[in-house]
């Protein structure tokens, strides 16, 4: 019998049904389940959605002076990947790791060579500066990622244009265009397409073509409410579009699946200073006069609002809320860092990523073998060695395997890694998403009291050293001759009659009778010190891992005001 078949399977659910865990989370502790709409409850069909945005953006660019030739551009779904950085200065698409080290670069449709990257970016490193970098981080950014590459390639190769000496743009006669201005034109066109009703009307006229419908959605929402939890919809989309999509997914009584319904939320502003809550007239879609100051009511649709007002009205502490969304910054980063909500990130690309991970296993095993081969070459060499071993062939093989692995994911490689290095996007997922999956509907495969327990995170000194290894050091020998540290600590605890009972995997018990007073105290303290928006500005980048500049996070919500 095959050895793999004899091994017990550590995971009880099919891979495509799983939810992955960065930080332990107990569903029984969650009192409020919040959902974004676009790419969360409503999963758009790909590449149909991207092609629609791509073609409408091209049309808009030709209306602001771009040549009609660009209408021949075609969207290719194997080209773009999320999480790339666009360098305004040199017009390059860059894949970077969580610290800003460049893993790959592309100018137009041409990959940058190692020498070119080193010339433009000393030490193959770049800082995330809002004046220099735009992060193409959302699913809505996929069409423009491909478009900017095609536009730059078009102008660089056009007979009437030539790249300037500084490599920052192109010149044709008296006309000069920087790569930054080309990208700004593209961004303006993309924003116009998403804010313009034409794209939304096209989707609403043929929802079956653009939106996936899944019978598990009402099952999941009903199960949450039947278990005594509260659910709410929090979307940036306007009422008309939200109503059309949710009616298609859940029926005319879609609001009954949620305790609260909030449209036009203007995330991430919602998590900072926010706006005022106003009721929406479901008959006309118009806002009712005045702002809502009383408790939020079931069956009523609200527009705008703020997280602070939401917290007070529903009496929800941060850890009571699990918010599910697809936007790493607008949904996950802001809700976690400024409000302490638990977070569930939706990453539709996970299906493809896992397919490559499982079906192309030999490539990953070959890369591991090459790493071992490289280690063996140096195994018996110490500080006295003078003859440098030949490792060029091994490094070439590693480079070749990494390239083959990247190609299995697409032209620009994996969303999460480049060879053995993880990407900027991956670092943000690990840092800010408590749990993540390809779809929120995977929750139907777990009971509502499930304990999502994070796997042990191993550091290199743990993952590369076998438990059976014997340390041959003077200090290790001393430890072996005496009682174990653990035995000594247990003796110390008995003498002092104190022991650490804190268990980090277990969340603190709910103290409902104190929660309101504690929340009011915290709110008063914040009010006396600084505004919530100031907290946002100070907290977004307080990490050694590269994080988004606040200004760009705020810009990201512009598109999502109307299309989430």
TrEMBL record:
<keyword id="KW-0479">Metal-binding</keyword>
<dbReference type="GO" id="GO:0008253">
    <property type="term" value="F:5'-nucleotidase activity"/>
</dbReference>
<dbReference type="InterPro" id="IPR023214">
    <property type="entry name" value="HAD_sf"/>
</dbReference>
<feature type="compositionally biased region" description="Basic and acidic residues">
    <location>
        <begin position="553"/>
        <end position="564"/>
    </location>
</feature>
<feature type="region of interest" description="Disordered">
    <location>
        <begin position="489"/>
        <end position="564"/>
    </location>
</feature>
<dbReference type="Pfam" id="PF05761">
    <property type="entry name" value="5_nucleotid"/>
</dbReference>
<keyword id="KW-0378">Hydrolase</keyword>
<feature type="binding site">
    <location>
        <position position="326"/>
    </location>
    <ligand>
        <name>Mg(2+)</name>
    </ligand>
</feature>
<feature type="compositionally biased region" description="Acidic residues">
    <location>
        <begin position="502"/>
        <end position="518"/>
    </location>
</feature>
<feature type="binding site">
    <location>
        <position position="36"/>
    </location>
    <ligand>
        <name>Mg(2+)</name>
    </ligand>
</feature>
<keyword id="KW-0460">Magnesium</keyword>
<dbReference type="InterPro" id="IPR008380">
    <property type="entry name" value="HAD-SF_hydro_IG_5-nucl"/>
</dbReference>
<feature type="active site" description="Nucleophile">
    <location>
        <position position="36"/>
    </location>
</feature>
<comment type="similarity">
    <text>Belongs to the 5'(3')-deoxyribonucleotidase family.</text>
</comment>
<protein>
    <recommendedName>
        <fullName>Cytosolic purine 5'-nucleotidase</fullName>
    </recommendedName>
</protein>
<dbReference type="InterPro" id="IPR016695">
    <property type="entry name" value="Pur_nucleotidase"/>
</dbReference>
<feature type="binding site">
    <location>
        <position position="38"/>
    </location>
    <ligand>
        <name>GMP</name>
    </ligand>
</feature>
<dbReference type="InterPro" id="IPR036412">
    <property type="entry name" value="HAD-like_sf"/>
</dbReference>
<feature type="active site" description="Proton donor">
    <location>
        <position position="38"/>
    </location>
</feature>
<dbReference type="GO" id="GO:0046872">
    <property type="term" value="F:metal ion binding"/>
</dbReference>
């Amino acid at each position: 019998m095959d050895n793999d078949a004899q091994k017990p399977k550590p995971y009880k659910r099919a891979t495509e049904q799983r939810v992955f865990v960065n930080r332990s989370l107990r569903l029984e502790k969650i009192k409020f389940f919040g959902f974004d709409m676009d790419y969360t409850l409503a999963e758009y069909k790909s590449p149909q959605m991207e092609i629609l945005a791509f073609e409408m953006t091209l049309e808009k660019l030709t209306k602001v002076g771009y040549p009609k030739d660009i209408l021949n551009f075609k969207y290719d779904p194997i080209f773009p990947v999320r999480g790339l950085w666009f360098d305004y200065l040199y017009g390059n698409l860059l894949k970077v790791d969580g610290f800003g080290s460049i893993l790959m670069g592309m100018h137009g449709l041409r990959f940058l060579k190692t020498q070119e990257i080193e010339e433009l970016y000393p030490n193959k490193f770049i800082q995330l500066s809002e004046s220099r970098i735009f992060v193409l981080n959302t699913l809505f950014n996929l069409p423009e990622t491909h478009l900017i590459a095609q536009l730059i390639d078009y102008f660089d190769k056009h007979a009437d244009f030539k790249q300037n000496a500084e490599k920052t743009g192109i010149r044709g006669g008296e006309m000069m265009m920087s790569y930054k201005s080309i990208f700004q034109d593209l961004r303006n066109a993309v924003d116009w397409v998403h804010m313009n009703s034409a794209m939304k009307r096209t989707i609403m006229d043929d929802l079956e073509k653009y939106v996936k419908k899944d019978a598990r959605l009402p099952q999941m929402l009903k199960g949450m409410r039947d278990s005594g939890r509260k659910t709410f919809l929090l979307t940036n989309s306007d009422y008309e579009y939200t109503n059309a999509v949710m009616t298609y997914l859940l029926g005319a009584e879609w609001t009954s699946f949620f305790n609260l319904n909030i449209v036009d939320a203007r995330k991430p502003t919602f998590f900072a200073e926010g706006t005022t809550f106003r009721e929406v007239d479901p008959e006309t879609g118009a806002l009712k006069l005045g702002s809502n100051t009383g408790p939020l009511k079931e069956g009523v649709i609200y527009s705008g609002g703020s997280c602070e007002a939401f917290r007070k009205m529903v009496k929800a502490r941060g850890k009571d809320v699990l918010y599910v969304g697809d936007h790493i910054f607008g949904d996950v980063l802001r809700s976690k860092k400024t409000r302490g909500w638990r977070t569930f990130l939706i990453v539709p690309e996970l299906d493809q990523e896992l397919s490559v991970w499982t079906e192309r296993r030999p490539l990953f095993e070959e890369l591991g073998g090459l790493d071992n081969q490289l280690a063996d070459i140096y195994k018996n060499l110490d500080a006295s060695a003078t003859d440098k071993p030949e490792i060029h062939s091994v490094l070439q093989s590693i480079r070749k395997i990494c390239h083959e692995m990247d190609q299995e994911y697409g032209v620009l490689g994996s969303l999460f890694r480049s060879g053995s290095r993880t990407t900027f996007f991956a670092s943000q997922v690990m840092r800010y998403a408590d749990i993540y999956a390809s779809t929120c509907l995977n929750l139907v495969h777990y009971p509502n009291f499930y304990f999502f327990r994070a796997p042990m995170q191993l550091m290199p000194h743990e993952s590369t050293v076998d438990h059976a290894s014997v340390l041959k050091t003077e200090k290790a020998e001393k430890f072996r001759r005496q009682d174990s540290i653990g035995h000594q600590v247990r003796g110390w605890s008995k003498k002092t009659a104190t022991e650490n009972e804190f268990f980090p995997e277990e969340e603190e018990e709910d103290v409902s009778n104190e929660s309101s007073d504690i929340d009011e105290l915290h709110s008063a303290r914040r009010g006396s010190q600084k505004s919530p928006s100031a907290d946002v500005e100070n907290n977004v980048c307080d990490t050694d891992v590269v994080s988004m500049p606040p200004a760009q996070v705020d810009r990201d919500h512009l598109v999502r005001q109307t299309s989430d």
